[in-house]
Specification:
The chain is about 55% helix and about 10% strand. The chain contains 15 helices and 5 strands. It has helices at about 1-25, 35-55, 70-75, 75-95, 120-135, 165-180, 190-200, 200-215, 220-240, 245-255, 265-270, 275-280, 285-295, 305, 330-345, and strands spanning about 60-65, 100-105, 110-115, 150-155, 185. A hairpin with a 4-residue loop joins strand 2 and strand 3.
């Protein structure tokens, strides 16, 4: 009887272990050994419920391996798989235990970090980025090291999203933005959160789509617009301007270069100094921008900011050549912010000033 009971218990334990192994295998990516897409979503849902109950934050870091298709096309898929394993090993080392690490897609990885702020996640992302750049990947028969670069999008619960969809959308949006920056890492700033709220407005959305179109022609534009907005808001807050004016400045800063939609690509992308004729064409963008903005209902208050952001105190600016206080206040604020951003940003024809 005891032997029979022992056999039954042993069989039950063995089946339980086989089931547990099967579940674990189903949750794992076969190439990297990290969790797969489905398993990550299950754990993210549980984390949201847990954080809601305990009122604690957590952070999601979405990572993308840059130019992975080039690796596969150049070296073949077996080498591509080795590079994925190499990146997964780096992620496990840098993010450590206690975090949910997954291969989110073909060349995308994702980390869920409980009780972690965006700033803490930023430090880990920087460490992983530097590790991959330094170590790279080297095939056994070659001396040459293949550099590995990653882009990172960071989003934090609940500031960047109260549900799974919102949080992952924020992380993905930041990841896309990171691909167009030198640092390769983007988290949601206060300015970006405010911008996201503005995008719910139909009129703003139409103009923002135009800015995106300009950004596709000239990658400098989107980052520059966000920097100008942040600097202009600093100035406005220091001046003690009211909240409704701050809102106008926020919209005006984001849309101030919308007139570049009418500037030819070859002028926007030219790596050298513009000719006098090309410069005259470029100087038309504030006027065109004000014309576009003024035609959109509800956007009338930002016309001055858009039209006058290249005017100067000495009257030598454009398009109207107004001087001193003849230039509207919003235009003067945007002009200072625009100048600071332009001077401190790297451009194809010169390095940014310190």
């Amino acid at each position: 009887l005891l032997e029979s009971i022992g056999n039954e218990v042993g069989m039950a334990l063995q089946n339980a272990k086989l089931y547990s192994d099967a579940v674990e295998a189903a949750d794992r990516d076969p190439v990297t050994g990290l969790y797969n897409h489905r398993a990550f979503h299950q754990r993210l849902d549980r984390q949201i419920k847990d954080s809601e109950a305990k009122q604690t934050p957590f952070t999601v870091v979405m990572m993308d391996l840059n130019n992975f298709k080039l690796f596969n096309d150049t070296y073949g898929h077996p080498v591509g798989d080795q590079i994925l394993k190499r990146v997964a090993d780096g992620i496990q080392v840098e993010f450590g235990e206690g975090n949910v690490l997954a291969r989110y897609g073909g060349d995308e990885f994702i980390a869920l970090m409980p009780s972690t702020t965006a700033q803490q996640a930023l430090g880990i992302a920087e460490s992983l980025r530097n590790r991959m750049l330094h170590e790279g990947f080297r095939r056994a028969e070659e001396e040459r090291v293949i550099p590995i670069t990653l882009s990172f999008g960071i989003a934090t619960f609940p500031e960047d999203g109260a549900c799974r969809h919102e949080l992952l959308t924020s992380a993905d949006t930041n990841l896309y933005a990171a691909k167009h920056t030198e640092e390769g890492i983007v988290q949601t700033s206060v300015c970006r959160r405010a911008n996201r709220e503005l995008k719910a407005e139909a009129s703003f959305n139409v103009l923002d789509a135009m800015v995106t179109a300009v950004d596709n022609k000239d990658r400098y534009t989107r980052r520059h617009s966000e920097d100008v907005t942040e600097y202009a808001l600093w100035i406005a807050e220091e001046l003690g301007l009211p909240e409704d004016t701050l809102r106008v400045i926020r919209i005006g800063g984001l849309l101030h270069d919308v007139g570049k939609i009418g500037v030819p690509d070859e002028i926007l992308r030219k790596p050298g100094r513009l000719t006098d004729e090309e410069y005259e064409i470029l100087k038309g963008h504030p006027w065109l921008g004000s014309l576009i903005v003024s035609s959109i209902p509800g956007m009338e208050p930002i016309v001055d900011a858009v039209r006058c952001h290249h005017e100067r105190w000495d009257g030598k600016g454009y398009p109207d050549g107004t001087a001193c206080e003849d230039t509207p206040l919003l235009g003067r604020i945007l002009a200072v912010a625009d100048a600071v951003s332009a001077m401190t940003t790297n451009r194809p024809y010169r390095m940014g000033m310190p």
